[in-house]
């Protein structure tokens, strides 16, 4: 008689390839081999995996038994959790652009939960086994991200929305040139007569945040403007930004460039707390062109990311990598555009 599924496993939900691997003390790939290529395993390993499968009541999806050479026409995209107080409309718009472009190419985007850290790799392993996805699009490619090396080692095609900030350059990517954007923001403010231009960014060590800070610093030095004491950092939420920008305003900044629209909104709150008016008293420029930017009073000047182009390029690069696995990596850097609204009037100082 077959064994009954383990009671504790049932309470925790259906068994997965990853839970079978943990129970058997092997890698998820070994479980996949036991299902699809049992001849690759030693008899004792195969028996241990089969025992775990039986004990947990694991039932692999039929796609796990299809040949790897057959295309599923699926592209995997891992959704990462948004921090409390943060907003993710930019990623929502990117996902729409990505899905639409993939659809036009005859593919579908398969979404799955992907927590940061090593635990998130289980989702990629399961998607490869259960759905035989053809490749992955990655976002949130921060330093220390293990996904690129993990996928490259297994020969799985992938493309990043964002540069591979961690270590040696691997893989194809599409990114928005944040440094170019903040450089253009400084140019705009200098043209309006501003000289005391501050930068409100994220903590150092963030690849994207450091890139945006570098463009501000580069442009300031090109114009001979001081940067010392004119940079502050905050996590990406309104309350923290409101506190962090205070010393910059105390020092007499006539304009603030923020690394995100969320940080810029914190600057708005700090100004109003001081009975000052954003735009009229201190110019503010954000980054991302969040939908709320045009709804603020005054409307927030900001740098818009070309998300439709990012989506198109991600799909193009991924399909090219699928057809030519050994081709040199391709990297695409796209320019953001400055959207001028009422938060950047001419300076009276």
From TrEMBL:
Gene3D superfamilies: 3.40.50.2300, lambda repressor-like DNA-binding domains. Residues 15-69 form the HTH lacI-type domain. PROSITE patterns: HTH_LACI_2. The keyword DNA-binding applies. CDD domains: HTH_LacI (cd01392), PBP1_AglR_RafR-like (cd06292). GO terms for molecular function: DNA-binding transcription factor activity; transcription cis-regulatory region binding. It comes from Streptomyces brevispora. The keyword Nucleotide-binding does not apply. This is LacI family transcriptional regulator. It comes from the Bacteria. Keywords: DNA-binding, Transcription, Transcription regulation.
